[in-house]
Specification:
Blueprint (H helix, E strand, L loop, with lengths): L2 H21 L4 H10 L6 H17 L7 H10 L2 H5 L25 H9 L4 H7 L5 E5 L6 H8 L2 E2 L6 E4 L9 H4 L3 E3 L2 H8 L7 E5 L6 H9 L4 E7 L2 H4 L2 H8 L4 E5 L5 H4 L7 E7 L14 H4 L2 H21 E11 L8 H10 L3 E4 L7 E3 L2 E4 L1 H4 L4 E8 L1
Parallel strand pairs: 5-6, 5-8, 6-7, 8-9
Antiparallel strand pairs: 1-3, 1-4, 2-3, 9-13, 10-13, 11-12, 12-13
Length: 393
């Protein structure tokens, strides 16, 4: 592809990401995967250049631009080499008109910036939230050890996590043998750390209430040494359907899945009420802690959507309380740095349930934040998370 054709393809990709964000469609990484699947003529260098330019534009503009061309033209204003690709060639974009629309640079919508600053984040944290994320692997200790996986795929071991390996962003590991046969799983180190907060043990009963594709379910199974029972539930059939084949590859035999209807979780889990030793609530959230991977999430979040998310989180915490046995615990996790979804959400739960309290956490990274702990890209080199462990007492 010519440089001009790459620029036009980047504009097309950003427009596709914008359309998905405005319409509540797929996340940007999924949009990009589909985009390139339909353009197999693009070589690996072409795809890398297109993706890099597209995501430079997405990261630079925290408010949705009027269209993708306005965003990339704004980048071209400061980059003569990029501006030269607007040459009107057959597959390239038309020449830039000095009077045409430009996008306004911003970290995020103003209301969201205010909310993040109220949660104690500063400019250094903001900058780190838009850096490119590395690629992290969780080694499946049920099947192998870390040294064996590093010998096959490379990477650096994390000194504070015995199962974690870090590789550069975009390292092609999906088709490597450890990933294909279940000896490793792609999982951010932050996700690995908050999974440790469950503190599950062999021969117990765990419920992963918002299991999704099962990344944390498999991490809990490793904590349990593959002994006991895990009930993994979700309301998203597509995501939950991915768990069983992943578990089979990983050699996890103690996890079962159950599809739930939204709003009817308590009734559909009545048969296990009061029985769980550990309940993980990896709640649906704004994803403000994952902007390194999904910077277009800033275009999706509105105050109304945040209100709906916090209402769902509160309801799921109440469901979790009814699922735990007398000595059971809840581990509440959000990949968000907003206090409304983290510290404030847990404080509200404790006020509704006076018999419950926050338990101390001893995690390898993170700092105390309200009734739990917070991890951030700037301080911990992870995605952003809030985690709290709750028990009766």
């Amino acid at each position: 592809m010519t440089p001009a054709a790459r620029t036009q393809a980047a504009i097309d990709l950003v427009d596709a990401i914008l359309d998905a964000a405005r319409g509540g469609g797929a996340a940007g990484d999924q949009v990009a995967k589909r985009f390139f699947a339909a353009r197999r003529y693009a070589g690996s260098k072409d795809r890398r250049a297109i993706r890099t330019l597209a995501y430079d534009a997405v990261r630079r503009f925290g408010e949705p631009p009027v269209n993708a061309r306005a965003a990339i033209v704004t980048l071209a204003d400061a980059d003569p080499a990029l501006a030269d690709t607007f040459d009107g060639s057959t597959y390239g974009p038309p020449a830039i008109d000095p009077a045409e629309a430009r996008a306004q640079e911003a970290f995020a919508p103003a209301w969201l910036v205010d909310a993040l600053r109220s949660a104690g984040l500063d400019d250094a944290e903001f900058a780190a939230l838009l850096d490119r994320a590395p690629l992290d692997i969780r080694v499946n200790r049920l099947r192998t050890d870390r040294d064996a996986v590093i010998a096959e795929i490379g990477g650096e071991p994390a000194a504070d996590l015995p199962d974690a390996i870090r590789l550069p962003a975009d390292t092609p590991v999906d088709r490597s043998e450890p990933m294909r046969d279940g000896r490793g799983e792609v999982q951010d180190i932050g996700s690995q750390i908050v999974s440790l907060a469950v503190a599950a043990e062999p021969d117990g009963f765990a419920i992963d209430l918002c299991a999704g594709g099962g990344g944390k379910t498999l991490a809990i199974a490793a904590q349990m040494d593959g002994r006991g029972r895990i009930l993994a539930t979700d309301t998203d059939r597509g995501r939950l359907s991915r768990l069983s084949p992943r578990a089979a590859r990983a050699g996890v035999t103690i996890a079962e899945t159950r599809l739930l209807d939204p709003g009817k979780e308590a009734a559909m889990l009545d048969d296990v009420a009061g029985q769980a030793d550990w309940v993980m609530v990896d709640a649906p959230c704004s994803g403000t802690g994952t902007w390194r991977r999904n910077p277009e999430a800033r275009w999706r979040l509105t105050p109304d959507r945040l209100d709906r998310l916090t209402a769902t989180q509160a309801r799921l915490l109440d469901v979790a309380a009814d699922l735990t046995g007398p000595t059971g615990t809840i581990t509440y996790v959000v990949c968000s740095l907003l206090d409304a979804e983290g510290a404030g959400q847990v404080a509200a739960f404790l006020s509704r349930h006076p018999g419950w309290h926050a338990l101390p956490l001893a995690l390898p990274r993170g700092r105390v934040h309200g009734p739990g702990m917070r991890l951030t890209p700037a301080s911990d080199s992870t995605d952003g998370f809030f985690v709290a462990r709750l028990g009766r007492g």
